[in-house]
Amino acid sequence: MINDHSNSRMATELPTRTTNGDATSQNASGESNFTVKTGLARMLKGGVIMDVVNAEQAKIAEEAGAVAVMALERVPADIRAQGGVARMSDPKMIKEIMAAVTIPVMAKARIGHFVECQILEAIGVDYIDESEVLTPADHAHHVEKHPYSVPFVCGCRNLGEALRRISEGAAMIRTKGEAGTGDVVEAVRHMRTVTAEISRAQNMSDAELRILAKDIQAPFDLLKETAKLGRLPVVNFAAGGIATPADAALMMQLGCDGVFVGSGIFKSGDASKRAKAIVQAVTHYNDPKVLAAVSEDLGEAMVGLNVSSMEAKDKMQGRGW
Amino acid sequence: MDITIGVLALQGAFNEHIQLLREAGQIVASKENNSQKKWIFKEVRTEAELTSCDALIIPGGESTAISLVAQRSNMLEPLRHFVKVTRKPTWGTCAGLILLAEAANQTKRGGQELIGGLDVRVNRNHFGRQVESFQANLDLPFLQKADGDGQDVETSQKPFRAIFIRAPIVEKLLPRVSGIQQDEAKAEETVIAPSRAMDESVAKDITLADVEIMGVLPGRTAAVKDDGMEEKLDAEAGDIIAVRQANVFGTSFHPELTGDPRIHVWWLEQVVEAIGRRKKS
């Protein structure tokens, strides 16, 4: 199974000659820098990106084998518990984290808050997450992401949302899931939704794709490219509710390219051990024996919230459009 | 004859290499008349998978993560055996180059494990963070030599569009020594690879020569730190971004992201030659 690339479950191969986004992102010499932006996302594949709130946690994440860390002021579980407006983190804290580790550092900006993005670019973070976990700053607009030299990752619940973000310049996509719950059900829902929509689009004629593009509010060219590839045209990670090695491997087997873990690590009993286990699970996601071994004796998982008993207003995934 | 090429699939852009290898395999086959060769390209995550390979690519990714996962998956020693004891053809790109170096600096606090095989010191994230990542045209002399025979001259002369992502460079060529790189071990914040002796049975087929510079990136001297005259002189000649020593080849850029199979074609031909040499003896 592992070596079978004609795998019918889901096309996971992302061809290197994808052209999406190129035309709209050119530097002074008329050349695209989208390749360089998506290139870093490709280097993160098969890896785990961990939420951290200080330099000490960042070092634990790096030592556990994280491919990148996401610097933020409060993990989603605390944002949920404490309420209030959640904003971009203090640049001082982000810089401390950047100084503490040698792996890439990402940071979150509020949806539509292009000045927070300018600030993050000025600090020199490696990736910006325009994230629904923070309180949105614009009721209608997402950030125009192509002009930045820093690449962006954005969340999605379905194919239309993913393609709108890519069209705005996102070089990487993640499922939204339901952050800060430790409940993987929404991440699975979003991944399965995207996959099902793509396989439906694959059997459509151009004329039918035009109707679909209108219905899901996605650009036709990007939709056509996606249908041809049989997968999203950029790297796609899982996020929002992943708490165990088994959750991580589940998302990988569903066709994700890698995994974000937010509250799941530093809200659990033994953060370092759990982080290492999730890293091993993402590499060996197709090997149940390894998964069984790394799942053993991890201590307490984060307590978690059942998404099914939450009210719609408490969900973060509805932020953004 | 089957030739099995593995791509280390612990983390990173391993699938991109497999895509280009498939393309390159077809080109190599079409160049040869009457070829009996069959290429097998496979992802490698375990020792058993590695043992079945004739040659290996270590892809780009996060070298820290690949190194830690290799350690915890009991793959570090099998990899050192593959590269340094049995001396099978191995190519590392970006993170792969770092892992194949005998010495590296700017690693994470507490250092990182290296496989080794190339007598060089690499400087991790040499150009800086992601905003400093870039593309550049490279003239790679080995590609032009390789394509002399009946190939379209224009194709072989065309510069290679190289993509550098948080890339390392070869900061210093090291002398060949028996055992570990002692002098490097003394330097602060530099990590070194452990020494593994070459298997005597392969010694007659492999000549451990000095490191060969296979490519340089001109005109980026500003980023080089001022730490010794010798290195400054090196820097003026351009940054070293491709090297070879015996069975090990390393590039600091990412041919797997370009869709240009020329380096993969060249490397597969090197692999065929290396296997041929061993068969003969």
Automatic annotation (TrEMBL), chain A:
<comment type="function">
    <text>Catalyzes the formation of pyridoxal 5'-phosphate from ribose 5-phosphate (RBP), glyceraldehyde 3-phosphate (G3P) and ammonia. The ammonia is provided by PDX2. Can also use ribulose 5-phosphate and dihydroxyacetone phosphate as substrates, resulting from enzyme-catalyzed isomerization of RBP and G3P, respectively. Also plays an indirect role in resistance to singlet oxygen-generating photosensitizers.</text>
</comment>
<dbReference type="Pfam" id="PF01680">
    <property type="entry name" value="SOR_SNZ"/>
</dbReference>
<feature type="binding site">
    <location>
        <position position="51"/>
    </location>
    <ligand>
        <name>D-ribose 5-phosphate</name>
    </ligand>
</feature>
<dbReference type="InterPro" id="IPR033755">
    <property type="entry name" value="PdxS/SNZ_N"/>
</dbReference>
<feature type="binding site">
    <location>
        <begin position="262"/>
        <end position="263"/>
    </location>
    <ligand>
        <name>D-ribose 5-phosphate</name>
    </ligand>
</feature>
<dbReference type="GO" id="GO:0042823">
    <property type="term" value="P:pyridoxal phosphate biosynthetic process"/>
</dbReference>
<comment type="pathway">
    <text>Cofactor biosynthesis; pyridoxal 5'-phosphate biosynthesis.</text>
</comment>
<dbReference type="InterPro" id="IPR001852">
    <property type="entry name" value="PdxS/SNZ"/>
</dbReference>
<keyword id="KW-0663">Pyridoxal phosphate</keyword>
<protein>
    <recommendedName>
        <fullName>pyridoxal 5'-phosphate synthase (glutamine hydrolyzing)</fullName>
        <ecNumber>4.3.3.6</ecNumber>
    </recommendedName>
</protein>
<feature type="domain" description="PdxS/SNZ N-terminal">
    <location>
        <begin position="34"/>
        <end position="239"/>
    </location>
</feature>
<comment type="similarity">
    <text>Belongs to the PdxS/SNZ family.</text>
</comment>
<dbReference type="InterPro" id="IPR013785">
    <property type="entry name" value="Aldolase_TIM"/>
</dbReference>
<dbReference type="GO" id="GO:0006520">
    <property type="term" value="P:amino acid metabolic process"/>
</dbReference>
<dbReference type="GO" id="GO:0036381">
    <property type="term" value="F:pyridoxal 5'-phosphate synthase (glutamine hydrolysing) activity"/>
</dbReference>
<dbReference type="InterPro" id="IPR011060">
    <property type="entry name" value="RibuloseP-bd_barrel"/>
</dbReference>
<feature type="active site" description="Schiff-base intermediate with D-ribose 5-phosphate">
    <location>
        <position position="108"/>
    </location>
</feature>
<keyword id="KW-0456">Lyase</keyword>
<keyword id="KW-0704">Schiff base</keyword>
<dbReference type="GO" id="GO:0008615">
    <property type="term" value="P:pyridoxine biosynthetic process"/>
</dbReference>
<feature type="binding site">
    <location>
        <position position="241"/>
    </location>
    <ligand>
        <name>D-ribose 5-phosphate</name>
    </ligand>
</feature>
<feature type="region of interest" description="Disordered">
    <location>
        <begin position="1"/>
        <end position="31"/>
    </location>
</feature>
Automatic annotation (TrEMBL), chain B:
<keyword id="KW-0378">Hydrolase</keyword>
<keyword id="KW-0315">Glutamine amidotransferase</keyword>
<dbReference type="GO" id="GO:0005829">
    <property type="term" value="C:cytosol"/>
</dbReference>
<keyword id="KW-0456">Lyase</keyword>
<dbReference type="InterPro" id="IPR021196">
    <property type="entry name" value="PdxT/SNO_CS"/>
</dbReference>
<dbReference type="GO" id="GO:0042823">
    <property type="term" value="P:pyridoxal phosphate biosynthetic process"/>
</dbReference>
<dbReference type="Pfam" id="PF01174">
    <property type="entry name" value="SNO"/>
</dbReference>
<dbReference type="GO" id="GO:0004359">
    <property type="term" value="F:glutaminase activity"/>
</dbReference>
<comment type="similarity">
    <text>Belongs to the glutaminase PdxT/SNO family.</text>
</comment>
<dbReference type="GO" id="GO:1903600">
    <property type="term" value="C:glutaminase complex"/>
</dbReference>
<dbReference type="GO" id="GO:0016829">
    <property type="term" value="F:lyase activity"/>
</dbReference>
<dbReference type="InterPro" id="IPR029062">
    <property type="entry name" value="Class_I_gatase-like"/>
</dbReference>
<dbReference type="GO" id="GO:0008614">
    <property type="term" value="P:pyridoxine metabolic process"/>
</dbReference>
<protein>
    <recommendedName>
        <fullName>glutaminase</fullName>
        <ecNumber>3.5.1.2</ecNumber>
    </recommendedName>
</protein>
<dbReference type="InterPro" id="IPR002161">
    <property type="entry name" value="PdxT/SNO"/>
</dbReference>
